[in-house]
Amino acid sequence: MSRFVCTLLLSLLLDVLVVFATTDDLNGEVKIEVLFMPQECTQKSKRGDLMNVHYDGYLAKDGTQFYCSRSDKTGHPQWFVLGVGQVIKGLDIGMADMCPGERRKITVPPGLAFGENGKDPVPPNATVIFEVELFSVSRGPRSLEAFKEIDVDKDRRLTKAEVKQYLKAEFEKRGEPRDEPVYEKIMADIFHKNDHDKDGLISPKEYNIYEHDEL
Ligand SMILES: *[C@@H]1O[C@H](CO)[C@@H](O)[C@H](O)[C@H]1NC(C)=O
């Protein structure tokens, strides 16, 4: 598959996707098969966690590969926040309670994938299969606790410096420090997806998809 298509699909998958109207026909359930389970599970993924994964997507009907994070130009695993619509619904559901190191085959009915219309090159009403490998899970950035922890100066706004400091500390705590460009890439992604008014700050409202009363 060409780089172009991969890149296209990457943005397609990582951008907020539409929730499709469901009909009975489209309304199947997500099927999860565990392909590999590590002996030790350090932290199971839950809604709001920052996930780092490789995933490859196939059409169920004939096995055609339509998405390939592994063969994407950088070959880096992808980042997204679980459970908030940054990936298709079926993956938000299918990647919950997953351990770092675990591999799963996730079969997603069209209603929880690309729907009645499909999304080129995925045809209409297509059941899709994702093979995913989870590399790391980190708490937040979506919990209230995380917001308070990130907001070092307690001004109820997250600056880039605050978010980056938090990210770095999280990775170092886990004994997995990363190179500077990796943090920069994650930061760019986080601000792109969350700083809706583009003022360079993440407000509680922009951050607060859980609608905590406390903020
Ligand atoms: C997709 O499924 C819906 C609901 O079953 C149906 O109405 C529609 O015609 C299908 N579209 C195609 C292109 O098969």
TrEMBL record:
Question: Which residues does UniProt assign to the signal peptide?
Answer: 1-21
Record has Calcium as a keyword: yes
Which EC numbers characterise this protein's activity in its record? 5.2.1.8
| Entry keyword annotation includes Acyltransferase | no
Classification via InterPro entries: EF-hand-dom_pair (IPR011992), EF_Hand_1_Ca_BS (IPR018247), EF_hand_dom (IPR002048), PPIase_dom_sf (IPR046357), PPIase_FKBP (IPR052273), PPIase_FKBP_dom (IPR001179)
Q: A single GO molecular function, which one?
A: peptidyl-prolyl cis-trans isomerase activity
Q: Which GO terms describe its cellular component?
A: endoplasmic reticulum
Instruction: Give all residue intervals belonging to the EF-hand domain.
Output: 138-173
* Keyword annotations: Calcium, Endoplasmic reticulum, Glycoprotein, Isomerase, Metal-binding, Repeat, Rotamase, Signal
Q: Which domain of life is it from?
A: Eukaryota
**Which reactions fall under this protein's catalytic activity?**
[protein]-peptidylproline (omega=180) = [protein]-peptidylproline (omega=0)
Q: Which PROSITE patterns does the UniProt entry name for this protein?
A: EF_HAND_1, EF_HAND_2, FKBP_PPIASE
Q: Where is the PPIase FKBP-type domain?
A: 48-138
Q: Which PANTHER family match?
A: PEPTIDYL-PROLYL CIS-TRANS ISOMERASE FKBP7, PEPTIDYL-PROLYL CIS-TRANS ISOMERASE FKBP7/14
Protein name, please? peptidylprolyl isomerase
Organism of origin is Myripristis murdjan (pinecone soldierfish)
- Lineage of origin: Eukaryota, Metazoa, Chordata, Craniata, Vertebrata
